[in-house]
């Protein structure tokens, strides 16, 4: 979210949570001052999620103190020890490189290192971007037999109104996350695209 009208349109369309990117090099980057109006526009019962990528602890702490997000979401190589030092629940995001098996990165290692994560988010890192890439990944790599009751697992990466229902029936995620697929340009959401996306989610099997 970068605009108050997009916060309102997303909440009105029924989104459970809205993301705010505190990654300076992102096309959707927010400063604390720029985020204040957005957080003030958040209605009750919709969760605010502050996104980071290998941040300094002091930056995370400042965002918590100034804006009081409900959840943190970490998109880089943050360890479990780093993530759990903050007085907020967190989601650990990861790319499909953690699923490839046979490499030094293994999905089970990621989960073991983040025992206090409230959930995990599996995203596409195919374009080299560590979030907001608009690229899908091969959903057949989704962890087999994953138990969303024990570890909620959210699907992200290149989702749109056209593919989200197929994605949901393919992997049965705990939730879905979208950014580029409801935008007209980076950071600028479309109320029509948001409504269409949410409608497809709500009618998915
Ligand atoms: O959105 C960004 O610019 C971003 C930058 C750095 C780290 C994470 C970022 N976004 C993370 C998200 O949760 C996106 O919603 C997710 O990656 C899906 O993006 P998209 O493929 O564009 O739907």
Automatic annotation (TrEMBL):
Pfam families: PRAI (PF00697)
Pathway in which the depicted protein is active: Amino-acid biosynthesis; L-tryptophan biosynthesis; L-tryptophan from chorismate: step 3/5
SUPFAM superfamilies: Ribulose-phoshate binding barrel (SSF51366)
Family of the protein in this entry: Belongs to the TrpF family.
Domain of life: Bacteria
Record-level Gene Ontology MF annotations: phosphoribosylanthranilate isomerase activity
This protein's UniProt keywords: Amino-acid biosynthesis, Aromatic amino acid biosynthesis, Isomerase, Tryptophan biosynthesis
Domain N-(5'phosphoribosyl) anthranilate isomerase (PRAI) stretches: 2-198
Source organism: Halothiobacillus diazotrophicus
Catalytic activity line of the entry: N-(5-phospho-beta-D-ribosyl)anthranilate = 1-(2-carboxyphenylamino)-1-deoxy-D-ribulose 5-phosphate
GO annotation, biological process: L-tryptophan biosynthetic process
Name under which the protein is recorded: N-(5'-phosphoribosyl)anthranilate isomerase
HAMAP family according to UniProt: PRAI
Keyword Metal-binding found: no
EC number: 5.3.1.24
């Amino acid at each position: 979210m970068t605009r108050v009208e997009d916060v309102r349109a997303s909440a009105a369309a029924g989104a459970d949570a809205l993301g705010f990117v505190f990654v300076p090099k992102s096309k959707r980057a927010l400063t604390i001052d720029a985020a204040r109006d957005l957080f003030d526009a958040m209605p009750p019962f919709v969760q605010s999620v502050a996104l980071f990528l290998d941040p300094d602890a002091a930056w995370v702490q400042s965002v918590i103190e100034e804006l009081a997000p409900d959840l943190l979401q970490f998109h880089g190589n943050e360890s479990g020890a780093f993530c759990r030092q903050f007085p907020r629940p967190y989601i650990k995001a990861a790319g499909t490189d953690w699923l490839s098996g046979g490499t030094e990165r293994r999905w089970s290692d990621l989960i073991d290192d983040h025992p206090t994560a409230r959930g995990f988010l599996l995203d596409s890192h195919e374009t080299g971007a560590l979030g907001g890439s608009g690229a899908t990944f091969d959903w057949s790599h989704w962890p087999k037999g994953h138990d969303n009751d024990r570890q909620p697992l959210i699907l992200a990466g290149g989702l749109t109104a056209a593919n989200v229902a197929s994605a949901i029936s393919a992997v049965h995620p705990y939730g879905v996350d979208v950014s580029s697929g409801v935008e007209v340009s980076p950071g600028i959401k479309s109320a029509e695209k948001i409504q269409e996306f949410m409608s497809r989610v709500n009618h998915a099997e």
